Amino acid sequence: xxxxxxxxxxxxxxxxxxxxxxxxxxxxxxxxxxxxxxxxxxxxxxxxxxxxxxxxxxxxxxxxxxxxxxxxxxxxxxxxxxxxxxxxxxxxxxxxxxxxxxxxxxxxxxxxxxxxxxxxxxxxxxxxxxxxxxxxxxxxxxxxxxxxxx
Length: 150
Fold this sequence. Notes:
Number of helices: 5
Largest sheet: none
Strand content: under 5%
Order of helices and strands: HHHHH
Shape: elongated
Helix content: over 70%
């Protein structure tokens, strides 16, 4: 039972790791830089979590409207600089594009990761039966013989 749980945890870790690579590469991060970007994101998240712990439940509330407006304004200005005046005609274009990118990029990455985990599982099962199948077959044969009384 413990071996099955360990295999499930390892499979889940591999799925998450593969999804992390696919998501960050889909956002334009080079394969060799994925771990560094993940470290920066994790450090930023831990810093935010530390701030929440220091300030108690008050930090769990939604961000202040000023912070939200500042973030949306920065996204819109960056988008306006990249695309030009056409982007300024669409309200909240930066937030809409960020949401679309995250949604679009995460779906295929998760689907591909799930397919890769399934393929890995089939390869592992095949390799296991190729290597140890004769032991399992011999044990089953002995059990059948004992059941027949022979």
